[in-house]
Amino acid sequence: MPESMVAPEAARESLRLEQRADLKSFLGLSLKNGLLNLVTLTLYRFWGKTEVRRRLWTSTYLNDEPFEYRGRGIELFIGFLIALGLGAVFLGLVFAVQFLGPVAALLILPAYIGLMALIGFALFAAFRYMASRTAWRGVRFHLAGSGVKYGFRYLGYLWLSALTLGWFWPAAQIRLAAPLWSGLHFGDRRFAFDMEDAKQENVYGPFLIMWAGMIVLYLGFAGVAFALFAASDFDPEQVSPAAMMALNYGIILFFALAVILLSLPYRTAMMRCIARGIRFDGVKVRLEVRTLAFGGLFLSNIVLLAISLGFLMPFVQARTAKFIFSRVKLVGDVDFAAIHQSLETGPRQGEGLADAFGLSIV
Fold it and tell me: Helical H runs in the chain?
């Protein structure tokens, strides 16, 4: 056969992901966003968040070409107004049923159950919005699937986790990640999530450490409190209000720090687990992050936010993105020439519910 009649082999590209953000520039952005939030009574935060995302996306490179963020602040503001309206309806319902006596319990319980399902819906909606506003080489991402179904799945997994004293939650997190990643598209090409490969990462060992550690922590605190109040020479009335307040806040701080430290191995293992399950056109994802390094980042971020009263949030988000993406390894190659633009444009408003529940990562 003549060479001119031989179809050329598809030009497949191996993948290299980099995060090139200049962290110093995010210090200035942090100051700008913080001051404008103060002046506008936090109203500017929707536009500030959009600017943070735009800078993070454009400083993230795949094969030396940056991602693009196409979201707008007004979309986040509209999402916030929708969430505000839903919140007002819920609070109005709670207030109204107070006048119904014993019947109120029959109405309040379904409302709170629906609220838990709404959290799952909010997570799905946030993922869908950010995917739809992300592009690379001009090709958009989008997320297929039903947010309502995801919300009820989230609710069911919460109940199963409660019934198993938390032991179903690691499996639930993996199962909740699957529809997000398997529903994600880049143009007309779909991602996949390999559940079996994800399960190769040991998450129950670190979960046992966290679960058992919290039980020991609780029992230890209960024992100390019982011994203290049982002591014959202890009189709470002799302790000044200031000392009692300092003691209460000290206990809260100690427990919060202990819970964070106990959860770090599990958090790290779950991140590796979910990354391990992600597939795209044969490409596998590996996240090479370890507990000690992630713990240092996590704790230092808390300190930075505490001493800056939250002003350094954009800087914290940028250094976290740089930390994560520098540890992502993409194994395999892709024929990007065979991928075409999708007609799916995504939702018109931002993830107001996720923001209201405090679930928005960036």
Answer: 23-39, 45-58, 73-97, 104-132, 147-163, 169-182, 195-198, 204-230, 241-277, 291-307, 313-325, 352-356
